[in-house]
């Protein structure tokens, strides 16, 4: 993007200058041009140029406030076509916004526009008191002030100056009024005064970030241009703008990522009176709004290149980071054949929100274990409309599970009575459900420490027939590479056999992400430079794997961490190594090193982490970390489903 400032006040000279630059640019965003000249400049440039020309001061405000209006009218249970809308201000943004509201479904006869002299009437227009653009919204009504116009109005749209609306004026409006006071930095009426003006609900938006519902053009730019440029659109037309507004409105109705909530001080962000448009920091704006604009360009004939919207959406999401690109591979695999997934801590709010996303995206069929009443009440309070399967230990026949748990653990000191007691714990119940094929996979650990969450699955589900050990693996995504780190959560002091098996499990996991594994067994020694018990373990493990004809990936060690990941070292000093490219599977010599290593890489190296993913289990079970976000639960759910698919579970 180039910021080009013109020392010119003649509209025709500005038009000629911009036209002359057309061969250089894919689109032109006009900024800070006052009315009425902005209308003339944009209109002529749109007609003469074959690339998008967009005046952000007009259309940015229109699109973002339009999205807010769609949701505000829904929440207030009012039809857009019935809204009586009053504008304060009749400049470029106000006129463009009024026009755009018509495209969304509002009626022109219901729009009253006021300038500094009062209501714009046909009488004033006939006397030449207003310019041709204001005349467009002149009404055949008596002359009056903004206060007169607001009496009985459903919506106030302020694009003028601060402090001109009183609480008395707000009280004169219709029931449950909608107030968009967007003058900056001081709104036409401040947030607290508007909310306190009356006893019913006031839906309030401003242009300020320190209040709920900030109408800010950053929600539209650059996402609208991104969609237009990627399909080589000749213009940004009304259909594209409407598509952007409707996509923004729809996004506000979805569950808000935890990272966005944290960015705003953990204040509740849930579709309703105080949340009618997404926050500017929400990363989903890119791959929700941009594809909608691109599709509208294609459908309306403005595009000169066609795109597959699903592929395009994935490409956009990948631009947000390597981890999203990697997870998209697994998400798509999961959606191809969803499985029954137990969420053991099913009455936790995050688990319920994750279950909704898992169900909505078609990743799995979630089964929530927990208190039926708590789950239902939480769903209602969050406004989540879906019908998950709920297994309440107090209302479920646990006899078959108690019988199976007794059979499995009776020689480990578990009696039938104790088995019944254990099944009141969601981790034991979920584990038995998976072991008995009543579910295909399981997630737990969100509200437990890792060892206590891991213990029931290990005891009940156990490791696979061809595995003796389980291990915890993290995928770390950097800007241009990914690495899998093991073991970070399970085996404290592994011997050579454990290290070898963990390496194989981790290599299998890498392939589920479409990554061809190259494994390095790490130490503080390079290929025998130090010889002691600690360095011999990874050396022996690497040798064991190289001698195994069933191992079909390059593996070497022991080696230092920088040797494993720096190509120049592998090709130079250690050109004899089995690795001809940097390793992407890093196997640490013990749990302490693994846990420290992945956390340093994540925090200091700026990597995004996915995991821990539990490998080596007989059936898919993954143990979350305390404090994991909803997106982490959804990611691990996808991994668990793909595990089940590849193991033929649930078929």
TrEMBL record:
Name this protein carries in UniProt: Bifunctional malic enzyme oxidoreductase/phosphotransacetylase
EC number(s) reported in the record: 1.1.1.40
Record keywords: Oxidoreductase
Gene3D superfamilies per the UniProt record, alphabetical: 3.40.50.10950, Isocitrate/Isopropylmalate dehydrogenase-like, Malic enzyme, N-terminal domain, NAD(P)-binding Rossmann-like Domain
Domain of life of the organism encoding this protein: Archaea
InterPro entries given in the database record: Aminoacid_DH-like_N_sf, Malate_Decarboxylase, Malic_N_dom, Malic_N_dom_sf, Malic_NAD-bd, Malic_NAD-bd_bact_type, NAD(P)-bd_dom_sf, P_AcTrfase_dom1
Class of this enzyme: oxidoreductase
